[in-house]
Amino acid sequence: MKVAVVGATGLVGTKMLQILEERNFPVTELIPVASAKSVGKEVTYKGKPYKVVTVEDAIKQKPDIALFSAGGSTSLEQAPLFAEAGITVIDNSSAWRMDPTKKLVVPEVNADVLTAEDKIIANPNCSTIQMVVALKPLHDKYKIKRVVVSTYQSVTGTGVKAVDQLFNERKGIDGPKAYPYQIDLNVLPHIDVFTENGYTKEEMKMILETKKIMGDDSIRVTATTVRIPVMGGHSESVNIEFENDFDLDELRTLLSESPGIVVVDDVANLKYPMPLDAHEKDEVFVGRLRRDETQDNTLNAWIVSDNLRKGAATNAVQIAEYLVAKNLVGQAVEA
């Protein structure tokens, strides 16, 4: 596979390179792509330096797959150029997620919707990905009616500038700001921009993307997304109402046997998922499983995952792995 990584010098692009290497994806030729100011810079993959090239140069080299992590406006402009050349794009931005003509995919949940004709495939929002991995087996078994989620999201979800802001504040340095307020020793109930209904775009992403990925518009979802001063991953408090009742031990076993999930749920020994434990891991960690005692057929759960890995780069690479395994991607056609 010839693989292009668009946005190769960014936080998620760098993580994509790392995960392609870790998972030994069959890369025969790597084509790193970035903005004009980064062209000519070098990135390292499997110990070898590769020069960053332009989009035009990358398309001429006819990669089989292009992993995009270069922002929504860049993707809207450039992903169709790759797709028109027969290159399969897996895009990490929000640009294509709610486009009814594009698939929105989490491999453990709905990889089977993919076909060879899908030339632009959307990678969901990080906080949505980890939640639906846990929701899928539960929905199949008990049928979900409603989800109430509150998130506790890492600053890494905003990017390098946010990480720098956090550590500058810890050192007492007045530097560039990614957020309108201090993030260290603080909590910001504000991720992305506010929309007309009073919800943020991040909250609306979780609401709308969950229905699309799960393939069920009847699931009601409401969300509050919050930025906290941590690094290792995103955490979520999720309240799930089912149509059917459940046995808690059976539910715990179901989750533990489902792909991509690690159950850490032993409160007697103070074992529960934390961002520090999820950092640099690809699984979704689930714990604090307990009945909601105020309402029938309702579960409370705590879900944690590394947002740069499973929430972004790993999920994109897993989509690529599925395409290769099912022979749904091949040599790009003549542009």
What does this structure look like?
The protein is of the alpha/beta class. It folds into 2 domains: 2-124 and 312-325, NAD(P)-binding Rossmann-like Domain (Rossmann fold, 3-Layer(aba) Sandwich), CATH 3.40.50.720; 127-307, Dihydrodipicolinate Reductase, domain 2, CATH 3.30.360.10. The protein has 10 helices and 14 strands. The chain has helices spanning 11-22, 55-60, 72-84, 107-110, 126-142, 160-171, 201-214, 248-256, 275-278, 309-325, and strands at residues 2-6, 29-33, 42-45, 48-51, 65-68, 88-91, 103-104, 120-122, 144-152, 220-224, 234-242, 261-263, 284-291, 298-305. The strands form 3 sheets. It has a 6-stranded parallel sheet, sandwiched between helices. Strands 10-9-11-14-13-12 form a 6-stranded mixed sheet. The longest helix is centred in the middle third of the chain and has 17 residues, at 126-142. The chain is globular and about 60 Å long. The two termini are 18 Å apart. The model is unreliable at 331-335 (pLDDT under 50).
